[in-house]
Amino acid sequence: MAETHYFPEDKVHYVWDNELDPALTVAPGDTVVYRTREVSDGQISPSSTTEDLAGLDWERLYPLAGPVAVEGAEPGDAVEVEVLDIHTEGWGWAAVLPGFGLLEEDFSEAYLKVFDLSPGDYTLFKDDIAIPIEPFFGTMGVSPTDPEKPVVMPPGPFGGNMETRHITKGSLLHLPVQHEGALFSCGDAHAAQGDGEV
Hints:
- By secondary structure, the chain is an all-beta fold.
- The chain has strands spanning 4-6, 12-13, 24-26, 31-33, 64-70, 78-82, 91-96, 111-116, 122-126, 129-132, 136-142, 159-161, 172-176, 184-190.
- β9 (122-126) and β10 form a beta hairpin.
């Protein structure tokens, strides 16, 4: 009989690492409920300002909730992840980070925008621009076989930082198992986004 598990909020990792002990082991068909950390791992808050971006500890970005071992999962299998539901915490943020992105020459100054997500269905970019809230995890993946422990970005054949905005409530994601137990992790939640990091 399928069970519901609550993932422990204190179990995060910042790189893909197949040597990590599973924080949780589940059977196929089980449900896992997550409450994930925001992408800066608490370094940005609703009261943060643009000046706070300069002090980011880059080693703490992308805290992933995981890993979760799936009983019986072996390399060559696929793990099916169904997103049953997903909600925001009531606020979010976006930033321009100098030196990053495809338009870094056009946007050389740091900028932070904190969004109020409490209306539930939308957030305001400006008084006359409403953005629909359609939450999803930017990062969902299984542990790769690589021994070098790659950082969360970029994605790979194991999934990872895919930023696929269509993997939201009601979606199914199939991930090719790379390592015994699959060792699934997720995080990098978004309230809304266009296609990919652009």
